[in-house]
Design brief:
The chain has 1 helix and no strands. Helices cover 70% and strands 0% of the residues. The protein is mostly helical. It has a domain of 74 residues. It is found in: Mitochondrion membrane. One of its GO terms (cellular component) is mitochondrial inner membrane. Its main location: mitochondrion. Belongs to the COA3 family.
Length: 106
């Protein structure tokens, strides 16, 4: 019976391919060839995942930018509404003053 690391593509008991084991290069003594292969595998994984990550980063950046612009737009809109309300308040004060003048003049 072959061990799991002997290169047998299928586990003879279960008929499944063996899973890769996580290796800590600081604890285990690895040959330079093994370290080189690990770096190549990591680079291949990064190149595979990079376009998807870049797309997600762009979408996230655009979403955050849209949120910031919406907040600024709402702020400017609120300030313009405050001016409008101030004008209404001034008109209301003037109307009260006219009403008070009429009431005291009568």
């Amino acid at each position: 019976m072959a061990s799991s690391g002997s290169g047998d593509p299928l586990d003879s008991k279960r008929g499944e391919a063996p899973f890769a084991q996580r290796i800590d290069p600081t604890r285990e003594k690895l040959t330079p060839e093994q370290l080189h292969f690990m770096r190549q595998a990591q680079l291949a994984q990064w190149q595979k995942v990079l376009p998807r990550r870049r797309t997600r980063n762009i979408v996230t950046g655009l979403g955050i930018g849209a949120l910031v612009l919406a907040i600024y737009g709402y702020t400017f809109y609120s300030i313009s509404q405050e001016r409008f309300l101030d004008e209404l308040e001034d008109e209301a004060k003037a109307a009260r003053a006219r009403a008070l003048a009429r009431a005291s003049g009568s």
